[in-house]
Prior knowledge:
Blueprint lengths: L1 H12 L3 H4 L4 E5 L3 E5 L3 E5 L3 E6 L2 E15 L3 E14 L2
Antiparallel strand pairs: 1-2, 2-6, 3-4, 4-5, 5-6
Amino acid sequence: MFRKLQKQAGEVLELPSDILKKGPRITIMGREEMTVEYFQEVVFFTNEEIVLKTPVGRLSIRGKNFVLTTVLDTEINLKGQISGLSFEEE
C-alpha cells in the first residue's frame, strides 16, 4: 500500500523514479565524464577505479586517468576514460 501511495505521489509531484526507488542516478557523457547522484559514500578511489556505496549496493567504475572534479554529499563528478561499470549487491 505504501509503495503504491509513494508511486502515485511521485507521479503527481513529477519526481524522478530513481529518487522514489532510492537508487543512484548515473549520467554518462560520452566515455569521458560521469555524474553519480544519490550515493552514500566513496569506498575506494584510484586513478583507475572508484567504488561508491549506494542504497542499492556498491557501484564500481573502471577506467583510466580518473579525476574527481566535483564531490558533494550526494553527488560526484568523474572525468577520465571510462571503460566499464558494475553493481554488486550488499
